[in-house]
Amino acid sequence: MPQQRLLVILGPTAVGKTALSLELAAELGGEIISADSMQVYRGMDIGTAKPSQAERAKIIHHMLDVVEPNEPYNVADYVNQAEQVLLGLKDQGIVPILSGGTGLYIDALLKGFLFPDASADEEIRARLEAQAAIDPRSLYERLQEIDPPSAKKLHPNDLRRIIRALEVYERTGEAISSLQRKVQESERPYRALYIGLCRNREELYARVDRRVDIMLQEGLIEEVDRLLKAYPDQPTALQALGYKEIAYYLQNQMTLPEAVELLKRDTRRYAKRQMSWFKRNKDIHWFNSSEMPHEVIKEQIHSLWEVFSREPS
């Protein structure tokens, strides 16, 4: 069966992915699938730089606002939902444009760096965490028995991953290393043209700082305050970049200038980590927006897509 073709627009935060994706979607007759681990949460709009309502009115977007901030959600949930979106677009003959900066989500969807049935089991996890509090070494020893390859990769103190591996074994009856190997050996039904956007570091960092300033002007403090009141237990989603820093200010743990500077610093560091992740993918066609005019970049992407579309699957 022919593989479904996708255009992937990726890169670090604040590099300009949204604007480029919107233009390409309009020109190619496509729809955008967000690949952002935080934009899935409802009510987290400003801090995640979610496309505006006006932008969404022009181009259909998917994988935005799919869960509440206090609901459990992981990469496996994202893959399952995004696969259904892709199937629908395939049936309609619409070009899918996967756009975002969460490399794990992109790789899991397109390359299968996952295993089946990976959603969390809260009961099993709670029991394992309770055991970890009493006798953490016993968990690692158990992993050595059931899944030596995984145990060899993990440090005995890496309890989070050890618990995850044991949880998967209890749910599926199979070692996580075996499940991962099976998935990686199976062919995914997608064929992607990867486009990477980058900028010179000084310019990217200046754009990051400017984006934070704009978020504050647009009401980031009010958004975080509203979410903290709605979810006082501060679920994992509210520990995200842009939310935890402002929460520090609202909870009188630091001044506003301190919180803003921390947010800018952490966002710059996040952009650096994103680039490190993406550089591992040798299939990405990189375009430096600091050195190439926007229209030239678009023209070259159109040429690449035209050739890519004609290639046999």
Q: How would you portray this structure in words?
A:
It is built from 14 helices and six strands. It is globular, with a radius of gyration of 21 Å. The protein folds into two domains: 4-112 and 188-310, P-loop containing nucleotide triphosphate hydrolases (Rossmann fold, 3-Layer(aba) Sandwich), CATH 3.40.50.300; 122-185, Histone, subunit A, CATH 1.10.20. It has helices spanning 17-28, 53-58, 75-92, 103-111, 122-134, 136-146, 148-153, 159-172, 176-185, 201-218, 220-230, 244-250, 256-278, 294-310, and strands at 4-10, 30-34, 61-62, 95-100, 190-198, 285-288. It has 313 residues and is α/β, with parallel strands linked by helices. The protein has a six-stranded parallel beta sheet with strand order 3-2-4-1-5-6, sandwiched between helices. The chain starts with a strand and ends with a helix. Helix 2 links the parallel strand 2 (30-34) and strand 3 (61-62). Helix 12 (244-250) runs antiparallel to helix 13.
SSE blueprint:
Layout: E1 4-10, H1 17-28, E2 30-34, H2 53-58, E3 61-62, H3 75-92, E4 95-100, H4 103-111, H5 122-134, H6 136-146, H7 148-153, H8 159-172, H9 176-185, E5 190-198, H10 201-218, H11 220-230, H12 244-250, H13 256-278, E6 285-288, H14 294-310
Parallel strand pairs: 1-4, 1-5, 2-3, 2-4, 5-6
Helix pairs in contact: 3-4, 5-6, 5-8, 6-8, 10-13, 12-13
